[in-house]
Amino acid sequence: MSINLQALMAQLLVGLINGSFYALLSLGLAVIFGMLNIINFAHGAVYMMGAFCAYFLLNVMGIGYWPALIIAPIVVGIFGMILERTMLQWLAGLDHLYGLLLTFGMALIIQGVFQNYFGSSGLPYAIPAELQGGMNLGFMFLPIYRGWVVICSLIVCLATWFLIERTRLGANLRAATENPTLVRAFGINVPRMITLTYGLGVGLAALAGVLSAPINQVRPLMGADLIIVVFAVVVIGGMGSIMGSIITGFALGIVEGLTKYFYPEASNTVVFVLMVLVLLVKPSGLTGRTT
């Protein structure tokens, strides 16, 4: 079998871009589960809300792509914090299934509302002028915007890992989930930290939605197409593992891209096959800790 280098690199680029979205979304899920023990099935819906927020900012308020990268995650993050304060906080200490069912129901409601008003077709979102065009690398043509998505996702993922694992704030967050009573004794407002953590996880999903809007268009069900794969990424990396989600997200995107080139029929199932194999060998995931 002769290998077409240009076609192979094109599929690797597509896989790397998908991996960027997998990493950002699974990172948000890992933050929420690792810090709050909530399986957030509404993650795909808030990813979609981030894309729609950027679309509204551009077409209603005339606010372009660059401010939207900051505004959309903040707006959707505030929505997530309200959701946590009004609903999810009452499930603290209960079985994970209750949080899963509540967030699954919220996802269906949010997607249904947007689909009712905007239908199922995609709404275009233009690539900003600064990121249009591409570069000829000799062996392939690299669209500038797609390269930006990969770099931006990697920077945000590493910054989030550093915040959670290497700062005092992150240490307080981890301590608040392990022993909230002790942390309260030091004068730290644990409920507020939990709410902010949920807002951070939701904001990461919204940021992924803004990055995705110029590539995949803005659709009410755009999150539903991704969320199952993202959950598989989180399981493979290890539930609650920050670095595991980042590495696994990018790696599985690349594996998916290679599969599309060498064996396209298996490209939609390769992630789930890998998930089954990992669970058979190490049920806690590649970097997860056995409890």
In short:
It contains 11 helices and 2 strands. It has 291 residues and is an all-alpha fold.
Structural overview:
The protein has 291 residues and is mostly helical. It has one domain. The chain has helices at residues 5-36, 43-59, 65-86, 96-118, 144-166, 168-178, 180-185, 190-216, 224-237, 242-262, 270-281; strands at residues 134-136, 141-143. The protein has a two-stranded antiparallel sheet. A hairpin with a 4-residue loop joins strand 1 and strand 2 (141-143). Helix 1 packs across helix 9 (224-237) and helix 9 (224-237) packs parallel to helix 11. The chain is globular, with a radius of gyration of 19 Å. The termini are far apart. The relative contact order is 0.22.
Radius of gyration: 19 Å
Helix content: over 70%
Instruction: Give the strand content.
Output: under 5%
Multimeric state: single chain
Strand order of the largest sheet: 1-2
**Unreliable runs, pLDDT <50, ≥5 residues?**
none
Task: Describe the sheet with the most strands.
Answer: 2 strands, antiparallel
**Which of globular, elongated, flat, extended, rod-shaped describes the shape?**
globular
* DSSP, total strands: 2
Derived structural class: mainly alpha
Quote the average pLDDT.
89
Order of helices and strands: HHHHEEHHHHHHH
From the N-terminal CA to the C-terminal CA, the straight-line distance is 46 Å
Number of helices: 11
Into how many domains do the coordinates divide? 1
